[in-house]
Amino acid sequence: MSKLPFQLGIHPINWVGEDVKEHGDDTTCAQILDDIQRLGLTGTEMGRKYPTDPATLREELSKRNINLISQWKSVLFSDPAYRQAELDDYRRHAEFLQSMGSKVISTAEVGGSLHFDPRRTPNEKEVLRLSDAEWHVLAEGLNQAGAIAQEYGLKLTYHHHGGTVVEQPEEIDRLMDLTDPSLVYLLFDTGHAYYGGADPLEVLRKHYDRIAYIHLKDIRPDVLEQARAEQSDFVGCIRRGVFTVPGDGCIDFEPILQELITRGYDGWAMLEGEQDPAIHNPYEYAKRSLSYMESLYQRV
């Protein structure tokens, strides 16, 4: 894989769930980082098992030659009442990532989402889509946050995400249209693109010039179909095993890899599975996924 024009890392969500807390909850930071080192990968995102003290985290990563590439940042910009507090928090987040040598901030709006929006109650069932006014307020907030990120040598990469208000292909398009291309970039996620009803390759081609970070994730279509038939929400879909690593689902990664190589993408891409590690061993699944990616690279 060394000849790839981009760098391949792996997300700790393969070992420890973020939305589904029971997934891998007994797994330690050392187990995750040791596995990443054994896989020969040198990039990771922040995970909830990692130490939050920058000096301790830096020590754990550096002794294994692993870099912290990013950390998820939830924002609530669609409601102007939250704007200033959210921007202040975003600045603190940027300061931390800069101190770790990161270059991108994985960012997602939680307004309207079932599993993040602090204004919602547990008995609600559907994502609340944004009004036109809320879309514009969201874009303004993201532009301001993107400017803060730039102050710290970082890029705001917006993570289109299942179960949120920027999930479907037309929502990705609208967000890209409303935001400043010099301030707001796209985190392209293959699995979330498919989950949201898009063709991942089409999203990649359409918005390539905005893409500054990538998550490579696969989908089990039979599980997704059954979950949708039973009206399962996003977190329920994760519990059912909708997501898996590249090469284990239905997404054809060969044209995606070809597109990235042809265009000379030189940022980071993270392998993601987001499934129950007690059933799907993270190290073994990642190892097979890396072999799959290697076989694709040899073909393209």
Automatic annotation (TrEMBL):
It comes from the Bacteria. Coiled coil: none annotated. Residues 34-295 form the Xylose isomerase-like TIM barrel domain. This is Inosose dehydratase.
